Amino acid sequence: MTTTTDTTYRIKGGRVGVLLIHGLCGTPVEMRYVAHGLARSGYTVHCPLIAGHGGGENEIKASTWRDWLTSAEAALDELRKECDVVICSGLSTGALLSLMLAAKHPDKVQGIAPLAPTLWLNGWLIPWYARLFRLVRHNWVADLISFPDIEPHGIKDDRIRDFIRKALTSGDSSVAGLPVTPGRAVLEHHRLVRKLKGMLSAIVQPTMIIHPREDDYADLSNAWYLQRNLKGRVDMVVLDDSYHIVTVDRQRHVVVERMLSFIDRLAGEFAGKVTTAATASIAPSAA
After folding, report:
1. Of 17, 35, 42, 49, whose CB has the highest number of CB atoms within 10 Å?
2. pLDDT, position 104
3. Burial of 115 (C-beta count, 10 Å sphere; 0-12/13-18/19+)
4. Residue 272 lies in a domain
5. Distance, CA of 48 to chain centre
6. pLDDT tens digit string along 119-139?
């Protein structure tokens, strides 16, 4: 029996909050550098452990994309208790969950910052035959297949990659997540993508997409697809010295800097709207 380790963490700040959602078979640890970078500027940050994660393969296989979304929604509701403005962000599959939160809860989400969003596994590392998995429709077939986390593990930096490699082989999934992604989890990811694609036209919040040009798991075409289909203002940031796990790789500081610029702007816009509304409410009526 595998014990699930809850690595959820929260950093309390002001009334502007950021929800950071980790990737498939990952953990909140992969969001820690970004979380602390944002918190130093006074923002409240929540990094939840998504349902089915933090344990072994059996736990992730027993969960569905709807379970992942439900746990993300619970984290959003918790953050809204402390914050008037919330920006949802996430890495890879976590990025898709952040987009779905924006589509389903436009009153609770004021902005979105997807990081290396992964609609399709089509990066340079993915072998051609792995792409045939999109033809799989049934759990029992998916259970016959697994996807090992292989070199370079989404990390371009040699030193960080060595740390991740050791963590993956340590047997402690609470740090680097699982060394193998079960086929059923990938199938649930595909189901999440199919649902999300039908909701993109409902997403009108300002969005900033950060995606690496050399992404080994998800080609840049993933980001361009979202840029074309989202209905709100979309800023694109293309990293030139990072692989898929942008929150820990060489340009993690750039991720923090660009996210801070985006969040600062949104916070300023929201403050301006509140001030304008307050002024209008107390203005004397015309004689």
Report:
1. 17
2. 97
3. buried
4. yes
5. 11
6. 999 999 988 778 888 889 999
Residue 179 lies in a domain: yes
CA separation for the pair 266, 260 (Å, rounded):
10
Report the 10 Å Cβ neighbour count for 109: 23
Rounded distance, CA 232 to CA 49, Å?
28
Domain-located, residue 282? no
The one-letter code for the residue type at 211 is H
Provide the domain count of the chain.
1
What is the span of the domain harbouring residue 19?
A: 9-277
Structure tokens at 257: 């800097």
Residue 15 placed within a domain: yes
Chain segment 154-175, per-residue pLDDT in tens: 999 999 888 887 777 766 655 6
Question: Exposed, middle or buried by CB within 10 Å (0-12, 13-18, 19+), for 266?
Answer: buried
What is the CATH classification number for the domain harbouring 76? 3.40.50.1820
Strand boundaries in 102-155, DSSP class E: 111-115, 146-148
**Interacting residues of 197 by C-beta distance below 8 A, sequence separation 6+:** 119, 229
The Cα–Cα gap between 173 and 161 comes to 16
Q: Left (φ > 0), alpha (ψ -120 to 50) or beta: where does 112 sit? A: beta
Report in angstroms the alpha-carbon separations of 222 from 116, 142, 185, 211, 237. 8, 23, 19, 9, 13
Q: pLDDT per residue over 186-238, tens digit each?
A: 999 999 999 999 999 999 999 999 999 999 999 999 999 999 999 999 999 99
The pTM of this model reads 0.91
